[in-house]
Amino acid sequence: MNEYDVQEIKTGRFFTEPVYLDEGFVLLAQEMVFSDEIASLLTEWNYQKVLSNGVTREFYENDDANQVVQNDMDKIERARVFIEELEEWTAKFFMKISSNSSAVHFEMVAEKMKQLCDYIKVERRSVLQVPKNDAGADDESFYASHCVWTAIVSIIIGLRLKLPIHRLIELGAAALLHEIGMLKLPPSIYRIKSTLSDKEKGLLFEHPRLGYELLKSYNFPLSVCIPALEHHERENGSGYPRHLSKDKATLYSKIVMVAGSYAAITESRPHRDARSGYEGITDLLRNKSKQYDESVVRALVFSLSIYPIGQYVELSNGRKAQVVDTNPEDPRYPIVQIFKEQTQDGANKIVTTSASGIYIVRPINKDEV
Question: DSSP string spanning 126-144?
Fold first, then answer.
């Protein structure tokens, strides 16, 4: 093991291997910064040397993430195809329900949601980097796309909350079908114009009840029907149709509220462009105590980070980067892939951002990269 003089180690740097006070006592793991506080304590304790097999770096480079990211483009493309096929299946399923087809069974949805759960467990990072359908709400495929993404985000939240697989399947089904009542409204409302008359607004506010009754008519489980009724309720009682507050809505409903809102913010609408994942997260955080369940918002933030996977960012060293994974210890400092800065094998460098190393200055759009 190499010896390092404590006085010569620059604070704010990282070691590539663990740091030891002696051969049996670990002082720092490799992702932990050598801080001013650590340096002061070592001086106070009269330690002049520390031991490590590693070397110091300006920032923590995540070698495991480096290996994972190499095949990302292929994985993202496969995830895109998977999601596209699920959106097509969902659009056809919606048509069957809206036409009162008898060929509609909960088991059909449950099987699709099991496939989605299994896929997300393995390819969460790839799924979150897939670009969304940018058709806008005047397109026939809009609601299928919105509901699929709501199901994806709901399942990711459910995984963070450690729900068992049978509950994840129910949650996914509830999220996929939460807007089904919209299909029973006139097309002028179904396609969401930028402005609605008072009469049209009154009809719009009925879609949760319509969805609930529609799913009940097909004998779907009550746990799946209720979120269709409650997904527009809010923690402070300002939602509709029943103005429920706090613990009166079910957990699935609370998750779908958050996931559906995040999906909506990051989608194109007739009157606005899609907003970034960062804006979606910060909007939810600003409203968590008023509109959304705090534990559900927290689960979303720790699953996606403040700067969600796929978000382009500018770093404190002036470089541009893309978020490629979350940091389970702190959602403010995700793992990023730095553009135009390569490792020895020519790959874009992967680092974990931190308060004392390289950190994110601001989110940027793709055109700024």
Answer: HHHTSPPP---TTSTTHHH
Asked if residue 120 and residue 189 are part of one domain, the reply reads yes
Model pLDDT for residues 315-358, shown as the tens digit of each residue: 999 999 999 999 988 999 999 999 887 776 667 788 999 988 89
Integer Cα distance of 41 and 37 in angstroms: 6
Of 28, 57, 86, the residue at which a domain comes to its end is 57
Given a contact cutoff of 8 angstroms between Cβ atoms, the answer to whether 267 and 254 are in contact is no
Residue of 253, 248, 234 lying closest to 177 (CA atoms): 253
Count of domains for the chain: 3
Please tell me whether residues 281 and 153 are part of one structural domain: yes
Phi then psi for residue 5, to 5 deg, are -75, 120
Domain holding 338, by residue range, is: 312-368
Do 286 and 317 sit in the same domain of this protein?
no
Concatenating the DSSP letter of every residue in 71-84 gives THHHHHHHHHHHHH
Six token digits for residue 162: 């450690």
- The answer to whether the beta carbons of residues 360 and 320 sit under 8 Å apart is no
On whether the pTM is more than 0.90, the answer is: no
Task: Tell me: do 249 and 358 sit in the same domain.
Answer: no
If asked whether residues 201 and 257 sit together in one domain, one would say yes
What tens digit of pLDDT does each residue of 113-153 get?
Answer: 999 999 999 999 999 999 886 655 445 577 899 999 999 99
On whether both 147 and 110 belong to a single domain, the answer is yes
C-alpha distances (whole Å) from 200 to each of 85, 139, 182, 188, 194 are 33, 19, 12, 9, 12
Cα–Cα dist 117/122, whole Å: 9
What DSSP element (H or E) covers 111? helix 106-128
In a domain, 64, yes or no: no
Both 161 and 202 in one domain: the answer is: yes
- SS3 state of residue 202: helix
